[in-house]
Amino acid sequence: MIYLYYSDRSLNYNFGPEHPLNPIRLSLSYQLIEDSGMLDGRTQLIRPTPASEEDLHLVHTLEYIEAVRREEPDRAFGLGSDDTPVFPGIFDASSIMAGGSIDAAKRMIEADCSTFNLAGGLHHAFPTLAAGFCVFNDVALAICTLKKRFSRILYLDIDAHHGDGVQQIFYEDGDVLTFSIHESGNYLFPGTGFVDEAGSGPGLGYSVNVPMPMYAGDADYLMAFEEIVPRLFEWYRPDVVVAELGSDTHYSDPLTSLNVTLNGYAHMVGRIVELTGRWAQGRLLALGGGGYNMAVVPVAWASVLRRMRGEDPAEYLPPSWVELFSNVTGCMPLCIPDMEITPGKETQKRISAELAQTLKSLKAIHAHIHPHVF
Ligand SMILES: [Zn+2]
Asked: Which of 63, 125, 324, 330 could make an SS bond with 134 (beta carbons 3.0 to 4.6 A apart)?
């Protein structure tokens, strides 16, 4: 059984009309899933409950939780920046976002299943710091919850941005292997996620980063993914997989400079589902994440659920949803198959050379720590 977590209450996580994180992407994603007939006997909708203070405290300090509850700008805690402004109701809204991922993790503790929290994936929050549109780190909260049953947790982050908050929270923890593939920190927020960030202490070797060159596309992403991720599964043999599936790697995303298409995205998600089925008994906790082109996000996340159900991504969008979409956004959605992106020869040469160097360095660092992995 697949449990889908979504509530209209997550639409209250709203930083205002000028902010790129438009909550409508969540309701449009949910509506597409519903209109596509996926809420059947195999996929069940669950309304998330707000995270309790006790749950939030698994990752965040009481001082930070209190600061969020005050709902006033407090730069010491990262609250009130341009990226993460404070708004009335920010505490309840953030608690609902976190609650979905915690609820999903709790369900996976009770029974073997897979789960998908559309509103989750706020991977930039730190224990005492809001950052990059993220207040509570629902990803880390879900992982800490899963630890109550599972001893080897693999975190896969394919969002265009480095999963810095999650990496830092488990940086010294050998029970959580974090992997992030993202646009290089040389070009993009948060400016971290380089190959030499490999963990420390008991966590040394349990933090893996693949920084991608600017304008990297499907072939580059899939090559890097296949070089690294299957070997991590084989070596680590995770009990459970948590995946942050931000769709801001898309060529049309306004915040990033990558060239991934919806086809490439759906293929990579399909590989995550496949590998989780093979090595982790299908226990996948999927989370949304970034994605700032409204014409992409719902189609991308509906394809995630399709893949989790063992189906191919739909090449057909229900007319009822297309009508809703164009009424709400004033434009038309993209669909699968997406157009193909072919960079110029010189650009591709530069991308391939930079990526080859990155993978070589990454393997050298990790082969030094765990000689049997690469
Ligand atoms: Zn992102």
From this structure: 125
Q: How far is the CA of 188 from the centre of ligand 1 (A)?
A: 10
Return the SS3 of 307: helix
**Secondary structure (3-state) at 269:** helix
Active site residue 124: yes
CA of 288 from ligand 1 middle (Å) equals 10
ω before 337 within 30° of 0 (cis)? Answer: yes
Evaluate if residue 34 carries a pLDDT over 90: yes
Kindly name the residue from 124, 182, 267, 366 that is annotated as catalytic: 124
Q: What residue segments make up the domains of the chain, in order of their start?
A: 2-369
φ and ψ at residue 178, rounded to 5 degrees: -105, 135
Q: Hey, is 111 helix, strand or coil?
A: coil
Helices 62-70 + 90-110 axis angle, to 10:
140
Give helix 262-279 / helix 218-236 axis angle, nearest 10°.
10
d(CA 248, ligand 1 centre) in Å = 6
Phi, psi of 36 (to 5 degrees): -80, 0
What pLDDT shows up at residue 23?
97
pTM of the complete model: 0.98
Question: pLDDT tens-digit profile of 93-113?
Answer: 999 999 999 999 999 999 999
Q: Residue 41 C-alpha to ligand 1 middle, in angstroms? A: 32
Distance of CA 212 from the midpoint of ligand 1 (Å):
13
Fold of 2-369: Arginase; Chain A (3.40.800)
